[in-house]
């Protein structure tokens, strides 16, 4: 891709550049590993349910930027992250990895 510093080229870069996608994937994988390391008292189901999803070009304010998400989809993933109303303590495993993903 030939990049010129204008609005159109920046948009194309943010949607399609393979080097940018590789960097996003590297950071997402780093975040996934860190999140798995934060999970305690688990049977393994929650950690195994973690994966990175490529959402395509749907990020950003105009929904036109590459987006990858770190996802845990075990049935009890939200209860572990946010707690329950029954008094269980919150044991966040995702929130602490945000700075790790942002810094790379």
Short overview:
With 104 residues, this protein is an alpha+beta fold. The protein contains 5 helices and 2 strands; from the N terminus they run H-H-H-E-E-H-H.
Describe the structure.
The chain has 104 residues and is of the alpha+beta class. The protein has one domain. It is 46% helix and 17% strand. It is built from 5 helices and 2 strands. It has helices at residues 7-16, 18-38, 45-49, 77-82, 98-103, and strands at residues 50-59, 65-72.
> Which range does the strand content fall in?
15-25%
Terminal residue distance: 24 Å
Q: What number of domains?
A: 1
Total count of strands? 2
Helix content: 40-55%
Across the major sheet, the strand order is 1-2
Number of helices: 5
Major sheet: size, sense and barrel closure? Answer: 2 strands, antiparallel
Label the structural class: alpha+beta
The average pLDDT is 85
Unreliable residue stretches: none
Shape: elongated
Topology as a string of helices (H) and strands (E): HHHEEHH
Q: What integer value in Å does the Rg equal? A: 17 Å
């Amino acid at each position: 891709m030939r990049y010129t510093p204008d609005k159109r080229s920046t948009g194309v870069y943010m949607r399609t550049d393979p080097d940018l996608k590789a960097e996003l994937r590297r950071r997402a994988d780093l975040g996934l590993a860190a999140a798995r390391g934060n999970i305690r008292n688990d049977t393994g189901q929650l950690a195994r349910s973690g994966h990175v999803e490529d959402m395509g070009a749907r990020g950003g304010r105009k929904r036109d930027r590459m987006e990858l998400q770190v996802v845990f989809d075990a049935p009890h993933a939200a209860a572990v992250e946010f707690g329950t109303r029954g008094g269980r303590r919150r044991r966040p495993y995702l929130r602490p990895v945000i700075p790790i993903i942002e810094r790379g």
